[in-house]
Every structure is written in C-alpha cells, then in structure tokens.
Amino acid sequence: MNKRHFLRGVKDALPIVLGYLPLAMTFGVLARSSNLSLGQVLSMSLMIYSGSAQFIAVGMLGAGAAPAGIMATVMLVNSRLILLSASLAPHLSRMTAPALSFLAHGITDETYAVALGRVGEKPPNRWYLTGLFVTAHLAWVGGSAAGGILGTLLGATARWGLNFALTAMFISLLIIQLKNNITIMVACLAGLVSVVVATMISGGWNIIVATILAATVGVLMEKWNKPSGRSSSVSPR
Amino acid sequence: MEQTVWAIILGIAALNYLFRVTPLLLLSRVRIPSLWARWLGYVPVAVLAALVAPEIFLNGGVPALTLENKNLLAAIPTFLVAVKTRSLLFTLLTGVASMALFNALG
After folding, report:
1. What residue ranges are annotated as transmembrane (chain A) (predicted)?
2. Are A187 and A153 within one domain?
3. Which residues are within 8 A (CB) of B25 and not within 5 positions of it... i.e. 6 or more apart?
4. DSSP strand pairing (B58-59 vs B62-63)
C-alpha cells in the first residue's frame, strides 16, 4: 500500500528529474568557477534546494556583494516559497506535524505544481509526496555533484566563455518572465534603477532597491490599467 | 572569506526552510492577502532585470556603453536567442559561445 503510493510519487517526479539534471549541473559548474568548494556546492543543493536562490547567491558572491545584501536579495526572491507552502497547506491538514516538517523541505515550484495536480483527485498521501519530493531532490543534488566535479576539469573558465554563463542564464529566465506590457515595464524600470544605484553604492544593494521599487510600480500599474479603478482591491483570485 | 561563504549558505538554508515549513504548519486557514501575492508575482522579473542590467551596462562600477565591453556585446545575441527560442539551454549556449569568441578575439 505505502510502497505503491511511494512508487507513484517517484514516477510522477521523472519529468522534474529531466528538468533538474541539466540545471543542477550548470549550477555545479558555475559555482565551482566562482571558487566554491565541492562541499559548499553540495551543501547548497542539499540544504538551500532552490535554483533561483543558489544561482543568485553564487552570482552575487562572484560580484563581491556584501553578505547582508546577498541575504536580503535571496530572502526577497524566495519569499515566494511562502506562497507555495501556504497554498499547499489546506490540502495537507490531516498530516502530523513531524510529517509536515519533513515534507516542507521538498517544496519547489516544480514539485508544488505536480503535487497540486494530484491533490485534486483525492487527499494526497504522504508516501506519494515523499516519493515525489525525495526523487526530485536527489536529482538536484546528483546533478550539482556531477557539475561540481566536471567544473574543475574545465580549468580556466573564461577561455570557454563560462564567465558569461550566469548572465546568459539570467537573461533567459528574464525573457521567460516577460508575459505582458506591465512585466516589460517592471523589467525596464528595475534594470534602470539597478544600474543607477549600482554606480552610487556597492555591495549588491542596487538589486534589492530596484526590486522593491519596480514590483511596487508593477502593482500600481495593474490598478491604473483597470477600466474602472473602483473595487480593484477585491479582485478574484 | 571561507567562513563568510558558509555563513551565507547556512543563513539562506535556514531562511528557506522557515519559508517552507511555517505556512505548512500554521497557515491551513489563513490566506495571504491578494495585494501581497500580486506584489510577490512581480519580484522574479524585477530581480532578474536588476541582476542583468549592471552586468552588461557597467564595467567596474562605471557605465560602459562601448565596444570594449564584452558583456554588452555578448548580451546582444543572447537576448535575441532568448526572445526567439525561449529556451534556457540554447540561450546559455549562445551566451557562452559569444563570450568565448570575444575572449578569443582579445
């Protein structure tokens, strides 16, 4: 019974595994080229387990940002985990606190999406979620290890153009995020503010200042775009 | 330096776990206000733009809109491929290949 649920979770994780392996390998290579040790690479993938946080942390470390600036930026980016966890919570209300505490670490954008796809059918089973979450996490750690080991074999990474890999990756993720005019405006504003602030203060604070400002303007622009400004505060979810 | 890196790793790890576990344990009935949810929805695009722009427009903290700025040059094909393909892999390969080319040219 438990085994059947567990195996179904493992099977549902396979598409996630295919997505995670190349991304995690890229992370491993980039982190090693930013002078992180293999132990640090593995610790990040095991304990942080968030692509955006790990790539941003490595990028900012490489750029010599202040620790507090790195923490603040990552905190802002990863606050979306609160949303994922909060929207999963009502479906898992029958589980015990220890089970929830264990499963919580496995929540990512991808595992969340797959898990929510299943909870519509019936109450989610904790063995199913364990199979799903553990398999995805193993792929993430395994891919990072492979990339981390491979990274040292490449030698001087600038020769291979790898000094631009992180920026290229951010560019790609940025383009994927551009869904409408408001997101394009938010991106332009954030970029402009970030550049201006970066010329004035160092330590990576430009990122957090630009993000807070541009996201706020984005929400305001939603309001201005509405045909009638009234009752926008009770818009349906 | 080494200790700072470990402190950052452990700090982010603790933060992430807190973000993941707290709502799961507490928030079975409380909802996140929609205004906050929508604000958080703009955070990824804003962060990414804020990360990319200084990387390609600045060089050592000063504006560098010149042909010597390799990051700016490499960003052009990278952006085009990103828009055209929307593929992480192809964009990454284009960026890396462009930079390898510019590095080789000196």
Report:
1. 12-31, 51-77, 127-154, 160-176
2. no
3. A97, A100, A101, A104
4. antiparallel
Amino acid at A173: L
Question: Is the domain of A16 the same as that of A131?
Answer: yes
**Do A141 and A72 belong to one domain?**
yes
Secondary structure class of A151 (helix, strand, coil): helix
> A237 in a domain, yes or no?
no
Q: How far is residue A187's CA from residue A200's CA, in Å, rounded to a whole number?
A: 20
pTM: 0.77
Tokens of B45: 């695009």
Please tell me which residue of chain B has the smallest CA distance to A74: B12
Q: How many domains does chain A have?
A: 2
Candidates A175, A221, A234: best to mutate against B (most CBs of B within 10 A) is A175
End residue of a domain, out of A117, A133, A160: A160
Find the domain containing A41 and state its range: 2-160
What is residue A133's three-state secondary structure? helix
Does residue A155 share a domain with residue A85?
yes
pLDDT in tens, B9-35: 999 999 999 999 998 888 655 666 788
The answer to the question of residue A64 being in a domain is yes
Rounded distance between C-alpha atoms, residue A140 and residue A62, angstroms:
22
CB pair distance less than 8 Å for B46 and A215: yes
**Phi (first) and psi of residue B62, to 5 degrees:** -120, 145
